[in-house]
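Milestone M4 deliverable, item 7.
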Amino acid sequence: MNTTIKTACPIARTASLIGDEWILLILRELFKKPHKFDELQKATSAATDILTNRLLRMVEAGIVAKVPYQERPPRYLYRLSKAGLALLPLTLEMMRYGEEWLPSDQASPLQLRHLSCGQISKAGQVCSTCGESMTVANLRLEGVNEVGG
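Output delivered:
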């Protein structure tokens, strides 16, 4: 885990780790599924050096695991670790806040499917259809073009 964050304030420590637009976009993609580097680059539109830097920070912090899938040349798959998955409630609340307080004229490219009831839910800690708590195990973050898939 990252030991360079010295402040006693837990909010400041968390903001220091994930308070970066690129890291949040990478998290968004990794909540959908594990990704190869080029897939993350395409999905986030991050420049190579930015994506490399942020993934390194996330791996060093223990929120992303770098899993080899090819030896020559070395290639890796990036997936959320247990610590990364624990960021789901915060991510859901950021999504809920954005929907409620920062409206857009465009439809969101993301939807939350609550797997327990199978329905699309509004962002938040509980399913807007059935009222059950949403967790990593019973929730799927889908791109609008991925619905049902």
